[in-house]
Amino acid sequence: MADTITEKRAWIAKHRFARIAPRKARAVIALIRGMSCQQAIDALRFNPRRGSVLISTVLKSAMSNANEQEADMGRLFVSEARVDEGPIMKRWRPKDRGRAHPIQKRMSHLIVQVSEKS
Fold first, then answer.
1. Contact assessment for residue 107 and residue 18, using Cβ atoms and an 8 Å cutoff
2. Can you tell me whether residue 97 is helix, strand or coil?
3. Residue 101: burial class (beta carbons within 10 Å; 0-12, 13-18, 19+)
């Protein structure tokens, strides 16, 4: 009784400390989750949001990682795409009468994983 082992191959690319707020990046990354890689690149190319440029570079990096391992590029799809919160740079904005208001410049960790469809 021989069991065949099917190995799921996946390739990950990350962009850590991206200077975009996680809330803004999550709106873009939700569009490509589960799509084929070529459809995801097309969707990001015509998306007007700033996060689409950052996410498309991470997606292309994951695809090139798969290409180096000789994956079938036509069968690749986005199996996981998520945005984690990074550190926050805390700054102060001067206001009237000597007051100061806090500014939080948020960062994100963009993670994209591609896999082959079986």
1. yes
2. helix
3. exposed
5 occurs within a structural domain: no
Indicate if the pLDDT at residue 64 is higher than 90. Answer: yes
- pLDDT, one tens digit per residue, over 84-115 is 999 999 999 999 999 999 999 999 999 999 99
Side chain identity, residue 41: I
Residue showing tokens 């873009």: 28
- The alpha carbon torsion through 6, 64, 36, 15 (nearest 10 deg) reads 110
DSSP state of 36: B
Q: CATH no. for residue 44?
A: 3.90.470.10
Q: What is the predicted pLDDT for the residue at 2?
A: 56
Measured between alpha carbons, how far is 87 from 21 in angstroms, rounded to an integer?
Answer: 10
Cβ pair 33, 78 in contact under 8 A: yes
